[in-house]
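Hey L., structure's done. Input below.
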Amino acid sequence: MMPEKKPEENLEEWMTTYSDMVTLLLCFFVMLVAASKVDAVMFEQIRTGIAREFMDRQVDQPITLLIADLNDDLKTLRLDERDNLLGDDHLGVVLDLNANTFFDSGSAELKPEATPILTRLASTLKLKQYNIFRFEVQGHTDDNPINTERFPSNWELSSARASAVTRFLINHGIDETRLRAVGMSDIQPRFPNRDAYGAPIPHNQERNRRVVIRMDPVYK
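Output:
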């Protein structure tokens, strides 16, 4: 009697099982990598959010303190809140002052009554806790043209007024590297200079003649 033939091993079935196992392992590692990437993204989002919140608070704190101090100054000086505005924007603090308190019409010479106002403001702006701020002094005019030997246009007049205020602040202890003077002429009025028929609106023109001090924090 011939011995029974030993059944052949099913190699294809073994290979299929092995292939399935490798595929499952590959899928598992892909899932691990994907999960790690998601975690990394989530971690970065959380880290960025915390950093942004921290920076926002760092920026907001000195701005809030400066506004509070300047509000006290304006109240002490008894400046009309309708014509002298204090606020903030996405960059920093903005102080909008009526130029009629500082200058006579068509002049860039500071009036005597400007001295106590600017002296008080300078004493606040040069405080140590506000060393992070840089100051931009802007001169603004109405749209009435000027044409004198010294001021051929409102550009020269507004620049001279901004420079006069800037020079005063420098002379009263503010580092000149923290300041710059900018003449804006009549290109950024707070209110319409003229009505729909082109007639001047004197009250608005008066309020458009102003000195603006921008105070923006700079973090190195």
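The longest strand covers residues 133-140. The chain has one domain: 62-217.

-- N.
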